[in-house]
């Protein structure tokens, strides 16, 4: 067994796929950035990301898949599901070994698993577009903290760039410790450690605009006023707004003191 170590990026994984074929490596497992101690007796192969190799793999896939099937590979990769790299690799092997389009062959485990992973990521990115709540800092930066199950920031970047083109903003994924920052012209990926107490009144008082507390409480009052108690449906509410998102939703955080 060979443990293939790559830099956790999609381009890095594609490079790994190219080199697995190039070197004829067999029985591979993937690990991000460092050797996994779970495989003590495996050989180790380190991948250096090479965009030209990644593009060659992408070109081959694009020729054999529909646009949706091609996009599903990236979306599935972003799902962060356990062993998704191995699943995708087996899916890619099936694609390259077949003379026909295989993406609708749902009897194949890897085809089905990739479609499910892509669907999960798509569903999560759709929810994030609705559940991002910005706060305004003293230096006129709108920031939001999210903690999605999937790595959806690359998928929602364009949406927020178009919607908030006249504002500086940062959306930070606290689970993966990175964010996307928009400076009124371009977006960029930033790595930073964010304050874990970002929803506390003390933290907000230190960094937020003087009127931010007022507007947050105003939003909570509006949210409360439009809810009709007699028509309350907790099950449906949780279906549309799962509880795992609540800690970063303004309307679900008690009024600031």
TrEMBL record:
<dbReference type="InterPro" id="IPR025404">
    <property type="entry name" value="DUF4130"/>
</dbReference>
<protein>
    <recommendedName>
        <fullName>DUF4130 domain-containing protein</fullName>
    </recommendedName>
</protein>
<dbReference type="Pfam" id="PF13566">
    <property type="entry name" value="DUF4130"/>
</dbReference>
<dbReference type="InterPro" id="IPR023875">
    <property type="entry name" value="DNA_repair_put"/>
</dbReference>
<feature type="domain" description="DUF4130">
    <location>
        <begin position="84"/>
        <end position="251"/>
    </location>
</feature>
